[in-house]
Design a protein that fits this description.
Chain lengths: 803, 238
């Protein structure tokens, strides 16, 4: 039955039912129906987090009218979270940006797309070296491909970074340091099979609720799964945990070392696994900035750990020594499966790379690796932080497929795949996010050599740390120009000189890559409002304008336009002209150009059509003799990964040491760069809440989500509140060395802080907590620490109502 | 196979095949019934006795008629349901403050359903799911002053007041919604469900004996999500 026939059938069935009912009685029993005839359902990955749930989007008369969890989706098996169920509403906020806007005399005024594209191109021509792009883990894979090729292949500039620098990059350096290649070896299936799940500073119940449920729902089926929650505050995750281990901020390295120490001291580590698959490593004191470090022997490793006795760890972390022993005893068991999970708690950390390495190290040391349920797994916060940023390589030091701009061979590969003249790609890494914004916000005559910044699909005006320094300082710098492609007005568009209205989610074709290496695809389902257009088109249109203005970099080796896409007849399609953008599937064209990049590090991708057909596939996706494409669940494990040699069991084939072994690192605990003192006696931790995603620019426009969580607040312990003399709902001021913010306090609310710690969510653009946070960052990943800085709390005396 | 079973099967099969054909499925699908042992034939005398039975044949069932009271309760219930949802199919919001989030707290009232005063707590219809606040949020945050809704023009699917699915006048209606996560019909249709959605035959426990689920709502129909299937080569779509 074709779609049309089916619709007609449902209509006529409904009609005959109505007629029949009417004939029988004047007050026929009326029944509600879930879906009106004519609603078309189609699959798409959810727009929000890195879990990668598939939703079914119901469309009627060109508008999204309903959402269902997709029963065919492996990730979510028909379930969604509260954000996912309401994802359809994000398209319909009344203040959608619908026309390009240029700042003239301080006001943003509507202009034509032609003028907008020309304006961007002229800013490039002013000085291509000072033109930078800031992308996103919400970029679709083709959007990232376009941005990467435009900047690195077209402008010969590596000043392209993405916001995953602020959320994922310490996970990346952790994987690279340990396995020589990025991204988790495990998958969500581990959560269905583990006996113990350890949350390392991870509030999964609110941040990744769908995968969290994969763990806790097992208990309803009578299975036993132990959840251990390591945290600096109680959260909704704690409510489901068997053990809650409260630790002092920044002491996680001591805890990890304490567990490793006991495994070694008690001779309880997995000797066979370690002998076959592990080398040991530490930082080189002579070259402390070198991420590769220097080798150490097992005995040296054991000696370095010796000081981390349970009692010493208790002293540093506040976690009772017995609990450290309990953790070590769990890892010592070979009869159970242990999965570690983490996200921002470990990544947004000035020692992010180090703690990532240590957690991998415990799993390797104890052999809890590579069997279903035994995995160290990092989760991502954005829908395509993995797909678009880590895999496509949209960071200032990367090229697609795990390549580096600093590596000559890698540049040659990219020039080959992109058909560029040799030497086009600049060997020098560009500015990472914190440095990029610092350079953009510094006056040109004081060394601020970035004059123009094009931001796509993200909101740095709210999400950067230390906002006064890294974003607001741009105000008043006449020669600096900020271009923002977005769907709603945000804290970033407030300082924008040019605003480009973008298509959102199912208003365009797209592809994402989730936390478990799953590449996903969707088709455009509805039209964007007004003149809003695809971000990918915007990049191509600017490139074409530069080409037309004679800019050499926009030509490939054959002097054709950089983004030349041909139809089936071999005729180039003018995709830079919006009227022709959908004449071909540009996403497919970009993806097929990108696919060959994926082979180098065994991250093989299938053809586009396979993703259109499925609910995503996890790489490496390898073609079988019968022509079908098989995804890989457990990487480096012989029973599942086709790249592992027969008989090897486990093989780390991207090994740093080229001997198929992973690296177990020793990294010492060190005090934090800023901690509570007499002037600023509290720890400030920032984070998210269930209802809002990232900076809230989408979820705060959904009534159900906004009503449930309308504003930011400061979570404070009842003891501290009593000492300050404040009650729940009263306003307090938080003051750090970088800023001051007044907001209501909430005692015993969503979470619960221990004495001496306060927590503030960052979703609320009217209460920008990032004005207070610290821009100190991890030396290897360059990821800032949003979880720890020092503040003082002051009671605000108000005369009116407390609220 | 014992004789009784065989007799029942033989009697039921032609009916089942006939109803398949009647449902408008393609003619090619209609196959002869499977080859079974010939059943014992009915006693012709018995038939005659039935025909000559003096008791009058019952009139065909009329469609249920709503009294004004029931109709009003029905509409009110639909409105109450819809008021808690962004669209038909969305998880309802929690119409009261929540604090302690231990699963057991929710189940205190929502395990079996509860009536207190004029408040009704529906029973959870998906007890295998343990993380209630994953899908259900508070309708309002009681910590903060009431807020203005963000302006949003989303208009979701609404339950329709007319229509529905009945094969024939008097047939039991199909289930007009998905059955995914709705394992306990009594959650909404039972004594602690919506007053206007209660059937007049609550004593019957096997709902799906008469009320068929609808493949279209349960993502089971072969035509469901057909557009993705029809477009495997990634042809452009506008």
């Amino acid at each position: 039955m074709t779609t049309v026939d089916r619709r007609e059938f449902i209509k006529s069935a409904a009609m005959s039912a109505a007629v029949a009912a009417a004939a029988g009685s004047t007050r026929a029993f009326a029944l509600p129906v879930l879906t009106a005839p004519g609603v078309q359902w189609n699959k798409a990955p959810c727009r929000f987090c890195g879990t990668g749930c598939h939703v079914l989007v119901g469309v009627e008369d060109g508008r999204v009218v309903g959402i269902q969890g997709d029963l065919k989706a492996d990730v979510n098996k028909g379930l969604l979270c509260v954000k996912g169920y309401h994802v359809g509403q994000i398209l319909y906020g009344k203040d959608r940006l619908t026309t390009p806007l240029l700042r003239k005399d301080g006001r943003l005024v509507p202009i034509s797309w032609e003028e907008a594209i020309d304006t961007v191109a002229r800013r490039v021509l002013k000085d291509p070296k000072g033109f930078a792009m800031y992308g996103s883990g919400q970029w679709t894979i083709p959007e990232g491909c376009a941005g990467n090729k435009f900047m690195k292949g077209g402008l010969s500039s590596n000043h392209l970074d993405g916001n995953p620098r602020l959320c994922m990059s310490s996970a990346v350096t952790g994987f690279l340091s340990t396995y020589g290649v990025d991204e988790p070896a495990g998958v969500y299936d581990d959560l269905d099979q583990c006996d113990v799940a350890i949350m390392w500073g991870n509030n999964m119940a609110e941040m990744h609720p769908v995968v969290f449920s994969r763990i806790v729902d097992r208990r309803s089926r009578g299975e036993k799964v132990t959840i251990i929650d390591f945290g600096t505050r109680r959260t909704r995750t704690t409510d489901h945990a068997d053990e809650f281990l409260l630790f002092k901020p920044n002491s996680d390295l001591a805890i990890a070392n304490g567990i490793a120490h006991l495994l070694v001291q008690n001779n309880a580590y997995d000797k066979d696994f370690v002998a076959r698959h592990c080398n040991f490593r530490q930082l080189d004191p002579e070259k402390p900035d070198a991420m590769q470090g220097k080798p150490m022997t097992f005995d040296e490793y054991a000696a370095a750990l010796a000081e981390y006795t349970p009692e010493r760890v208790e002293q540093i972390s506040g976690v009772p020594a017995d609990k450290i022993r309990l953790l070590a005893a769990l890892f010592a068991r070979r009869d159970i499966r242990i999965t570690s999970l983490w996200c921002m708690g470990m990544n947004q950390h000035t020692r992010g790379t180090a703690i990532n390495c240590l957690v991998h190290g415990i799993h390797l040391l104890s052999g809890h690796f590579g069997k279903p349920g035994d995995a160290p797994t990092s989760l991502t916060g954005q829908p395509s932080a993995c797909g678009t940023v880590r895999e496509v390589g949209t960071l200032c030091h990367l090229l697609p497929g795990g390549r580096l701009v600093a590596n000559e061979d890698h540049r040659k590969h990219a020039e080959g795949f992109w058909n560029l003249p040799e030497g086009r790609i600049n060997p020098k890494p560009g500015y990472h996010t914190v440095l990029l914004f610092e350079k953009f916000c510094t006056p040109t005559d004081k060394g601020g050599d970035i004059h123009t910044l094009w931001v796509q699909v993200t909101n740095p005006g709210q999400s950067l740390p230390n906002l006064h320094k890294l974003f607001k300082a741009k105000k008043g710098l006449e020669d600096k120009f900020l271009i923002v492609s977005d769907v709603y007005p945000t804290a970033t568009t407030e300082l924008a000189d040019l605003v480009l209205p973008s298509a959102l989610w199912v208003e365009k074709n797209g592809m994402y890559g989730n936390s478990e290496r799953r590449t996903q695809q969707w088709f455009k389902m509805v039209d964007p409002p007004g003149q809003a257009r695809d971000d990918c088109w915007q990049t191509i249109a600017v490139a074409r304008r530069l080409f037309d203005l004679g800019f050499e970099g926009m030509k490939n080796k054959d002097a054709e336009f950089l983004f030349t896409f041909k139809d089936k007849g071999g005729k180039p399609v003018p995709v830079w002209d919006w009227n022709h953008y959908y004449d071909i599937n540009v996403d497919e064209a970009f993806f097929e150009e990108y696919r060959p990049f994926s082979k180098l590090k065994q991250k093989d991708l299938a053809p586009y059509a396979e993703y259109a057909r499925t609910r995503g596939l996890r790489w490496p996706v390898v073609q079988q003799p019968d022509g079908s494409w098989r995804e890989t669940r457990w990487r480096f494990s012989e029973f599942d990964d086709p790249y592992v040699k027969k008989g090897a069991g486990t093989q780390f084939y991207n090994s740093v040491t080229k001997d198929d072994k992973a690296l177990v690192w020793f990294r010492p605990w060190e005090p934090p760069p800023e901690g509570p003192d007499a002037d600023y006696p509290y720890w400030l931790c920032t984070g998210r809440v269930l209802e809002h995603w990232h900076t809230g620019s989408m979820t705060r426009r959904v009534p159900q989500l906004h009503r449930a969580m309308p504003a930011a607040y400061v979570e404070i312990s009842s003891t501290d509140a009593a000492r300050l003399g404040v009650r729940s709902g009263e306003r307090v001021a938080l003051v750090s060395r970088r800023g001051r913010l007044e907001l209501p306090c909430w005692i015993g609310g969503r979470g619960d802080c221990p004495e001496g710690t306060v927590f503030v969510p960052f979703f609320d653009e009217s209460l920008l907590i990032n004005e207070l946070t610290l821009d100190a960052h991890d030396p290897f990943s360059k990821q800032p620490d949003y979880k720890k800085c020092a503040v003082r709390v002051e009671r605000v005396v108000t005369t009116g109502a407390a609220r | 196979m014992n004789p009784t079973t065989r007799r029942r099967l033989t009697a039921a099969l032609p009916l089942a095949w006939a109803s398949l054909a009647g449902a408008g499925l393609a003619g090619s699908l209609i196959l002869p019934p499977p080859d079974l042992d010939p059943a014992p034939r009915a006693d012709p005398q018995e038939s005659r006795r039935w025909v000559s039975n003096p008791v009058p044949r019952p009139a065909p069932l009329a469609p249920p008629v709503l009294t004004p009271d029931r109709a009003a309760a029905f509409s009110e219930s639909l409105e109450a349901r819809a008021g808690l949802r962004a669209y038909e199919g969305a998880p309802p919001v929690i119409p009261h403050a929540i604090k302690d989030l231990d699963l057991r707290t929710c189940r205190t009232c929502h395990a079996t359903g509860l009536r207190t005063g004029d408040q009704l707590a529906h029973a959870v219809s998906h007890t295998h799911l343990a993380n209630c606040t994953q899908c259900h949020v508070e309708a309002a945050n009681h910590q903060f002053a009431p807020v203005h809704d963000p302006a949003n023009s989303f208009a979701g699917i609404r339950p329709q007041a007319a229509g529905g699915f009945r094969a024939l006048s008097g047939s039991p209606p199909n289930i007009p919604h998905t059955t995914f996560m709705r394992t306990n019909c009594a959650s909404c249709h039972g004594p602690h469900g919506y007053p206007g959605l209660q059937p007049d035959h609550l004593d019957r426990l096997n709902c799906v004996q008469c009320h068929a689920l609808n493949a279209e709502f349960d993502q089971l129909s072969p035509a469901f999500n057909a557009s993705a299937r029809e477009n495997p080569t990634g042809e452009q779509r506008r």
